[in-house]
Amino acid sequence: MLKTFGANLRHFRNEKGLSQRDLYALCNIDNAEISRMENGEVNVTLNTLAQLAEALDIPAYMLLKQ
């Protein structure tokens, strides 16, 4: 599940033309933490999931979809 989430996060971030630093600026999550999320190394909270989805302007479930 973490790998799927990470791949989806990277996909939607790239689709929006955002760098990890850009995403950090939008949701105030450290870009090193974003990197760990994208690599499937960290479990995120629901609040973090919601923040990322809002910053990417997508429904939260899209980050979890396989």
Summarize the structure.
Pfam families: HTH_3. The chain is mostly helical and about 70 residues long. It contains 4 helices and no strands.
How would you describe the overall organization of this protein?
- The chain is 62% helix and 0% strand.
- It is mostly helical.
- The protein has a single domain (2-63), classed as lambda repressor-like DNA-binding domains (434 Repressor (Amino-terminal Domain)).
- The protein starts with a helix and ends in a 10-residue tail after the last helix.
- The chain is built from 4 helices and no strands.
- Helix 2 packs across helix 3.
- The model has no long low-confidence stretch (mean pLDDT 96).
- The radius of gyration is 10 Å and the shape is globular.
- InterPro entries: Cro/C1-type_HTH (IPR001387), Lambda_DNA-bd_dom_sf (IPR010982), TransReg_Diox_bact_type (IPR050807).
- Pfam families: HTH_3.
- Keywords: DNA-binding, Transcription, Transcription regulation.
- Residues 9-63 form the HTH cro/C1-type domain.
- This is HTH cro/C1-type domain-containing protein.
